[in-house]
## 1
Amino acid sequence: MKVVSFPTSSKPYLSYSSPELKRFQLPLLHQCSLSVSLVKGSEQPLLRRLTQKQSCIKVVCYQKKEVAILEARSMDEIYDTLAERLVPTAAAASNPELKYIVGLTGPPGAGKSTLASEVVKRVKKLWPQKASSFDSQVTPPDVATVLPMDGFHLYRSQLDSMEDPKEAHARRGAPWTFSPQLLLKCLQKLRSEGSVYAPSFDHGVGDPVEDDIFVSIHHKVVIVEGNYLFLEDTVWKDISLIFDEKWFIDVDIDTAMKRVLNRHISAAGKPPNVAQWRIDYNDRPNAELVMTSKKFADLVIKSIDF
């Protein structure tokens, strides 16, 4: 099969990868109307026009699963594209209480928190322009929110009660230092009841703050962000099934670790040697584990250095 490529410009674009079709790229246009279908036995994609009410990019392929890859020349372009992707889907829901829940993951230092907050900000801005005709009950400030996984850290007192407290504190941030059971319960309640109180995490104190985040019944888009949301193990797998869409921020681990190192030194005030030890002993192993879950994403977002 030929590799069919589309010229790229300054606009963001999606590329799809598969064993037979190594990669092709599709420009993401604000009014885009391109459909690409791969037909078994054919070497060329079939192109057709879509109406504006249909999906911007539609790929139908005989392979079991295709993973879309979003790339752009700046993170701002990526934020804009993701927001424009979310608003029509969330706004089209006939039930005003229905949530569109996105799982966002990636290794430490990938930029998850920044991406989530920037996309939410843009969704709020776009909502009155593109969604007012769908749902007049929702006011612009209340349509989207972020739910971080950080609030589901185990308390320090719980780490103290473990078999090896020193190791538990040294590895804080690893999957087993969280409570996925509580996160699952929180997301299930959000799905069934439409609103929920969730804990935040106080980095100054080093512990969760209960009921500090409120996801309202009027929030249409909820971005849940954290490291381990797509893991296959135990409760994490049940968590991943909650999401309507799964995004993975893809970044070179060395680049991510440089960002985390700077965070340890500048934000946490750790001496450089202590910060580097933390990277080698905890952050990098965690990042390598997270990278194994990229294959479960619906959309892979290529991070750009910032």
## 2
Amino acid sequence: MPPTSVIFPVHTSALNEQIAWLLHNGYHAISVQDILDAHYGLKSLPPKAFLLSFDDGYSSFYTRVWPLLKAWNVPALWAPVGSWVDTPAGQPVNFGGLMTPRERFATWEMVRGLSRSPLVEIGAHTWASHYGLPANPQGSREPAAANRGWDKTTGRYESDAQFIRRMTDDVQKVTAKIHEVAGKTPRAWVWPYGAASGSTLTIAKQQGYQLAFTLNDGLGNVKDLDNIPRLLIAGNPSLKAFASAVTQIQEADPVSGDACGSGLCL
């Protein structure tokens, strides 16, 4: 995925059909807590387990998705970008360089309400690192949470120490704010653009994060919570296309060995 911010809408009716298809075809909805319990040997995941995840912090999660979760009794992970939710009312959100109407994004009051639901796990999608930063003299842009920046003024790359300080400040800020609003420390770290960094992951773990979600292909495994892959559902696909994408992942990466240790994240 390119390091630019683009909204990938899925219609509410389509999401409803997708959840129905999953449940009617033998898939079992799980939560972040279920994954952690399986990781620590407290339980096994059901066959064909799946976790729904939603990024960025759109207000539509509160107004449209949450009612569906309650109707189907399906849990989900929701990971907002802190600075986008923190944007004052009436001001546009700097959506990775694209100025976007404030009402498209949730408020902290919405976050507080969602955090009280047993169906919603509040994760973190950085505080303000969901953008592409200049990463080389040629001007290429790469995900800010996973790459050292290039300063054309000084003609130098960001040092390791500078990168660690920048991302430590970011992780600490989003973690503290979510804890303040939700009353609990977030446990799930969701990489912008799916781009991971070992240095940032270490910082996140130090702040209490126990799972990290990418956009890599395949099924997740409870033995590896540092690199949980996800299937990106974008562009409002037909139900047939959705079913095909899910089935292909399941068939390409069948459960083996630990018979209840794998699951699909969408």
## 3
Amino acid sequence: MSSGGCGSSCGGGCGAAPPQMPSCGRKKREIGEAPVEVTHENVICTDEHLKKVISENLSEDVNQSINAIRLGLMRNETDSKFAVICGQQTFSFKSRSNKLCVVGNAKVTCHIFEL
């Protein structure tokens, strides 16, 4: 029976450290500023372009507004994907998206979140 040398199964300390586990790395969209948690109480828009797209395409009809905003975003030819949510009133939310915007009129409020 060995007493603690390199052949010991009790970790004698003679061998090299095991290799590190491979890392998957960071995704492209994770590079840059870390997202900040935002709630419905502390945001209007984090991106002026999104504000312009909503403002130019917002109507008094929920479905027309959603479709027009979605087309406005597609014309921008961005690689980003967005969720467009419109309703007759605003709603509570939390998001960790870097780009989001909430704009409304007397009848419709629309929210855009970068996915």
## 4
Amino acid sequence: MATSTPENIQNIIYPAPESPTDRRFDDLVEFLQMALERTVKEYGPYKLMPSTFVMNETRYIMEIKNNTGKINVIWSSTSPDKEKDLQAIRISLRKDLLGYRIALINAGKQADIDKIKTLDDLKNLKIGQGRGWGDNAVYRENGISVSEHNYKDLFRMVTEKYIDLFPRGITEVFDEYELNHSELSGLSIEQHLVIYYLWPYYFFTSRKDIVLAQRIEKGLQMMLADGSFEKVFNRHNSQVILKANLKNRRIIQIKNPFLPKDAPVGSGNIQPLDAAHNGV
């Protein structure tokens, strides 16, 4: 990064991790950093940093919408309301991987979950989700019971059977299991089921911060063009795609009625995941 006086450096503030072991968004921070780095010549130097305190997604969206300066870029699923209130950068950061959900469960419930074959069966279970998460409404719209709690409490709650499933993106579930299972006896990765819904993930800025949005979009487009986007994506995700073994799981697909009708889905071909839908 070019040397510059402090007053000329743009501070880019993104959501802080929710705990010291929260690594869910390392790939997105890397995408953001690389996009900013590629645009230094045109837009100037920057300093990338996490927010000073943790907020839930609803609060982050409010802070961005109101352009408070506490945070100026977030990553989130999209919806018509979000794209009305915020400036969406319409490049799907994880090629829609987060739409494939594998659950954390109590190992003793595996036999019961093996009986779940359809959406109607799934409606008999209670899932756990974080407070304010965007897909809470997707589950409820499909008739699925949702219990909202703090993210870090959900691991204990599924282990103690207060909830039946804690669905996680395939980019999240394996690392989260490794980080938590030694302290939570009975925590397990469900073996045979995957829930799927369209769930593109974008960067968002304030509508008053169009220059930052343009900068991030230009940097991402440069990464797509030179192949570095694909390299970062594969480095963070290729192994979990293999671990997920989607072609040998039962897929229950639910509808996302909150997806903007003109939203581009994905930023490239997702052959390993497309193959999972064969015969569904």
